[in-house]
Amino acid sequence: MAIDVTMPQMGESVVEGTITKWLVKEGDVVIEDQPLVEISTDKVDTEIPSPGAGRIAKIVAAEGQTLPVGATLAVIEPAGAEAPAKLKVVAPKAAPKPEPAP
Prior knowledge:
Layout: E1 3-6, E2 16-22, E3 29-30, E4 35-40, E5 45-49, E6 54-59, E7 66-68, E8 72-78
């Protein structure tokens, strides 16, 4: 199941934050607690850590974008959740023709 990275509440009166810099890109493999993005609020500037290990499947928020607390910033696919490889379909071999009886 995918893990959403969301805008955290950085204080009681903080209702939004601005993405200042992404530290990862789509496709990167990350570990839990690895810094993913820098955000800025009216009270604090901080890095948001990864809530889990896996691969960055999608970055939803762009640098410079201001989002409310709880908004999705990115989506992480947990390790081992990659889409299964396409299976190669092999046609069965034709049965050998019986040889004519003498």
